[in-house]
Every structure is written in structure tokens, then in C-alpha cells.
Amino acid sequence: MNTVETIQKQCQLLRLGAVAYQVEALADQAAGEGISYLQFAQRLLESEIDQRRERDLERRKKAAHLPARHRLEQFDTTGQENLPPARLQQLKELSWLDQQFNIILMGPPGTGKTLLAAGLCHQAIGQGYRAYFRTMQELVDILKARELSARAKTDYRRLCKAQLIVIDDLMMTPQSSTEANLFFHFINQLHEQTSFVITTNKSPKQWVEVLGDEVLTTALLDRLLYRCEVIQHAGQSYRMKHRKSIFETLS
């Protein structure tokens, strides 16, 4: 076994995967540049740190459950009077997250609410925040199953430690009394330590119709709207505007 193979084996034992993979190339580069031993050691460690950061980012993105379209570069502010480019830039800077503000994105289906919410979640993950994306139905299912399912229990614990939770399609469908209470207690538990980004096609006044309890709805709104920016989306549905036809495909 030569020196390179020995070092690679030692790196594997120490779980230094990036160093094991790059040690020979970095050694050749260092020899060509004539750098010091300390500079060479620094490059080795930097390669390991960079790879671990990349792996950690991928793990957190996977745990977030982001939808396919989740990059803010894809969001079009054209026609969004309440969200010009300057305001979008402010949202991207995430100062509102540090101040534990909530954001409610309200408007008709297809106007970019989910893309914007997912994009902010993706932005937060990239900045090192613990951020997750769930539909309201997924969240309710987790809350109902957390005492019965190990997976749901793990997901619930993860959400309870979040700095940002995106709840997509809030109040889309009516909730049972049990579901409404579970949802309220979840928000009540986290509202002073976690920021929420919420997408909904219903105004807060209509939420009582979904939850079926005016007192609970009022208490929920009190917690979510205390420190909150409500952004009204407008315009034609992106999906309807760019809809496909089988006849176009076949022609």
C-alpha cells in the first residue's frame, strides 16, 4: 500500500471523505505551487468542511419537503402591485425572520403564493435557518399521528425546533373540531419562537367557516397577526395563463 492509499484509508477511518477523495490532487497542486505544509493542511480541511456543508444543506433541503418550483428567481413580480422588486428583495434578506414576523400570502389560486413561500423557505435554508415547508393537510396529519407513528413523531419534533415553517394552502378545506384544536395548539405553542409563512386563498374573515369555531379562529388570528405582514396577490392564474392543450401537443 503506497502513501496515498494509506492516507485515504486513514481518512476513511476518521470519516474524512472529502480529504480521502481529494488528497492526491491537492498534494499535486500544492507541490506545483510550492505552498507551505500549513497551507496544504488548510486546503485539506477546507475541502472537508465545504463538502460537509454541502451535505448538510442537501439534508436540510430534503427534510424541508420543498416543492419542485422553489427558487425565488422564478417568481415574477409583474402585475403584483403589493410586491414590487424592492419589497421582494427585502423579503429575501430575511430580516423579518430574525424579528420573528409572520407573512400571510393571500390571493386566488395560481398567482405565485406557493412559489414565493417555497422560495423564502429555500432562501432561509441556504442562510442556515431551520426551515420547513408543509401543506396544512400534511401538518394536520402529522399532528394527528404523532402519538402513533414514529415518523410523524420525528417530523413533529423537527417542526417544534423550526425557526421558519411554511404552511401552504391554509384553510383550503373544512377541518374537524379535533383537527382545528390540534392546529390551534400547535400555533399557540410556537408563535413566540417561530415565524410562519402562510399561503391561503381565503381572507381571515373566512377562516371561521373552515375551522367552525369563532372563538378558536379569533384566538388563532390574534397570534398570527400580532407581528405579521399580509401580502395580497392578484392577477390571472399562472397555470391557466400557460395551460397546455392535448390538441396543441398532437398537432
Automatic annotation (TrEMBL):
GO biological process, one term: DNA replication
Domain called AAA+ ATPase: residue spans: 99-229
Annotated family: Belongs to the IS21/IS1162 putative ATP-binding protein family.
Keywords annotated in UniProt: ATP-binding, Nucleotide-binding
Alphabetized CDD domains for the sequence: AAA (cd00009)
Name this protein carries in UniProt: DNA replication protein DnaC
Matching Gene3D superfamilies: P-loop containing nucleotide triphosphate hydrolases
GO molecular function: ATP binding
